[in-house]
Amino acid sequence: MLLSRTLLDLVDKASSQTFDRQKLESHDEMDGRQINIQRIWEGPGLGLQQTKLLLRMPWKHIRLVLLLFLTSDFDAVQSISVTTDQPNVVVNVGNNATLDCTYRTYAESLFSLEWRFAPGPKADAKSDKILYYIDGKTYRIGHQANRIKLIDQNPTHGVASIRIENTQSSDTGRYSCDINNPPDTSGPSEAFINLVVQVPPSTPECKVIGGPYLRNNVTLLCRSEEGWPMPRYTWSEINPSAVKSSSKFTIKDSNKGSLFLRNLTMEHSGTYICVASNVLGERSCQLVLTVTVKNEAGAIVGAVIGTLVGLLLIAVVTYHLLRQKRKNPKVPVVGHELREDAVAPGKEANSHLLTSSVHSHETNTNSMNSKYNIVV
C-alpha cells in the first residue's frame, strides 16, 4: 500500500505542473517521457522480484495505467502455483530418485506441505501420506520413512522437492506434492509425479504342463516373479531338429512365456532353455523333456488285477455270510404248522399208554370170561 500511494503521489504531482499542454505533448513526441517503475518484494517462492514499465504517453493517461498495473499485479500475488519440471521419473533399482516440486506463494504464516504416494501404475489408486511439513517440523510415514528426505530442509522458500534413496520396486507409483498456504487459495496447489523403478528379471521357473507322451500335447511355461519393464521370454532348444522347429508343431508366446508343443514325437525330447529379459538384463532356466510311449499294457494289467481283487472280495463276503447262517439255523415256530398224517408233538407217549390200557382191558375181560365159564 505504501508503494502504491507513493507512485500515485508522484503522478499527481507531475500532472499538476503548470506548463503548456501542447509543448508537453510535442516534447513527449520528440524526446519521449520514460517512467521507470521499480517494485521490489520478497516472500516464499518469490525471491527478489523486479518489474519495469516503460511509458511513452501523455500525462493524463499515466494515472489510469498505473492503477490497472498495480491492481492486476496484486491479484497475482494472492494466488498459489505449484509445478514440477519432471512429471515422469525413471530410475534403476537401488539408485536415488529426485521428485521435483516448486511453488510460488506469498503468505507464509499457515504454510504446510504434504507428499502422498499411490503405489502401482493405476492413476486412481488410493494414495497415502508419506511426508508432511508443518510448523517448522518434518514428519515421515510409511515404509519409505527412512529413505525419503526433503531437498531443502526448510521448504518455505519455494522448493518442496524430495529425494528417495536406494529405490525399490515397491516405490513405483504416483506421487503428489500439495502446498497449503492460506489465504493464497486460488491456482493449482498440487503437482503429480510418476515414478518408475526399473528392475531386472528374477531367475525364471521352468515347468511342463501335461504328460510328455507320444502324440500328446504339452506346454512349457517360464515365468519371472520380478522384473520391470515386464520381461519378454524366449524359448530355444539345444540341437533342435527340423521337425521340432516347424511352426506346425510349436506355438510361442513371448509375453506369457509359454511354448506349446503338439503331437509329440520322439524328436521333441531334449533340453529346452527359457531366457527372460528386459532393458536391465536377462535371466534363464532350463528343463529336460523326455517323450515316452504311454504304457497301455500296464493299464490293462492294472484293470484286470483290480477286477480280480473285487471278485475275491465278493467271494469272501459271501462265504462269511453262509457260514454265519449255518451256525445259527432258523428255529421253526411250534403250533403254527399242521400235518395230516403226522403225530402231534407230545402225543406219542399218550398213544402208547392208551394202547397198553386197551390191551390190558382186553386181557382182563378175557380173564373174567374164562373165570365165568369155569364157575358155570
Automatic annotation (TrEMBL):
Residues 78-194, 201-292 form the Ig-like domain. It comes from the Eukaryota. InterPro entries: Ig-like_dom (IPR007110), Ig-like_dom_sf (IPR036179), Ig-like_fold (IPR013783), Ig_sub (IPR003599), Ig_sub2 (IPR003598), Ig_V-set (IPR013106), VSIG2 (IPR042475). Keywords: Membrane, Transmembrane, Transmembrane helix. The chain crosses the membrane at residues 299-322. Pfam families: Ig_3 (PF13927), V-set (PF07686). This is Ig-like domain-containing protein. The lineage of its organism: Eukaryota, Metazoa, Chordata, Craniata, Vertebrata.
